[in-house]
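Q: My labmate handed me this sequence with no annotations at all. I'd like to see what the chain might look like in three dimensions before we decide whether it's worth expressing. Could you predict it?
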Amino acid sequence: MVVLAASVVSKSGKALVSRQFVDMSRSRIEGLLAAFPKLVGTGKQHTYVETENVRYVYQPIEALFLLVITNKQSNILEDLETLRLLSKLVPEYSPSLDEEGVCRAAFDLASAFDEAISLGNKENVTVAQIKQYCEMESHEEKLYKLVMQSKINETKDHMRRRVTEIEKSKIDRGKTEKAFAPLRSPNDFSDTNSRGRLGGDPIFADSFIQKPKGLPSAPTATSKVAGGMKLGKAKKTNQFLESLKAEGELILEDTQPSGSQSRLSSVPPSDPIAVAIEEKINVTVKRDTGIHNFDIQGTLALQVQNDTDGFIQLQIKNQDLPGLSFKTHPYINKELFNSQQIIGAKDLNRPFPSGQNETPLVKWRIQELGESSLPLSVNCWPSVSGNETYVSIEYEASEMFDLHNVVISIPLPALRGAPSVRQIDGEWKYDSRNSLFEWSIILIDQSNRSGSMEFVVPAADPSAFFPISVGFSASSTFSNLKVTSILPLREGSPPKFSQRIQLVTDNYLVI
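A: Here is what I predict for the chain of 511 residues:
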């Protein structure tokens, strides 16, 4: 079968959402849609009608029609199956089955149609899979957020206990100093009492001495205690982080951004135009040899600060790879993109949307990649010797990418204590709650393309150490797609632009 187009039209023939899947001129698709209301009769039970060149397969939805246009050589049963799948998608994305509701969900519907039909052929997918692809949900991301939230809660509980212990020690210290108060002179008693209430820190005592002498003693002591407690809290936090580092926890800015860094990342870019290019890698590698699946999904998103800067086109370039296929936003001029690699709107009088949100304009997929294209290969060799299992793991990185924040997570059988690490290139952490061994390498570049580690645990089944999960990021992509210049559609110099390019792991497993 070859699906030419899929549309949602009103009974008057007005196209609300339309997505074509083969090269057709705009005038032809508009002519086919305009002819449809004249061909549909009243009181007929069939759901298709044919002309000399095409077949219309349709289904009424409330006051609308869901319409699939195919060639006449297409199998009618497959056409009906495609129509049935699309009819389930419309109520999933449209808040109401009328013109207003469909128009409001036009972009989501067009994206869902793209996932259901590719190059005129129906994809073997379900409605649930299409929703997952469009929402780009990740089980690994949810698991990561749960683990991080658990760590945050544990940290808060530990900090509360530490604060309670410190306050208790201050009270005990104050009682001890009061017991020796009669042995001191009045001046010494006043100074000692102030130090005891302020935590015995000479820094607070110095700040107290420098206070103006004309102030009453009681209010001054009260203000000092409040100020001292504020400074003490900051000091306790630092001491707590240091104690976590001493216990082997990874407290690194590269692996866990601080609150200030998170705030900075949410600040709008300074340039009028910002381009975000991201590729997500999904890989399942067999533990022996071979690849179960290898899939790359990319997105180019645009953020425009001002309405006046939205009248532009983007000139891009990319590496020509086998298996690389592009999908453009329904409002992008597809012919211009295919012929000149220029991203521009169909309507030149309509600017790109402005604001703080990024607008995805182009998506792509790379599927025909082999094992030699893997950014990182991980091999695990568990071997049982007596009552112990020796687990040797090695990695080998491709020269194509420099990898950042690499984390290799190995599941372990239930253990009473942390495994015994014999040798490691990098850092490690044992998550007893989830029974995970995490091997971390901050950066893999030309200096450490390969590395290994070995740890020992009690005797266990070798399959207990799989699947191994791998996470990393890189500042370059497989497609090497980038924006080379901004082409203004109105008079004036091109606006400045910045672009962020990154490769991240979505699901990278060794099974």
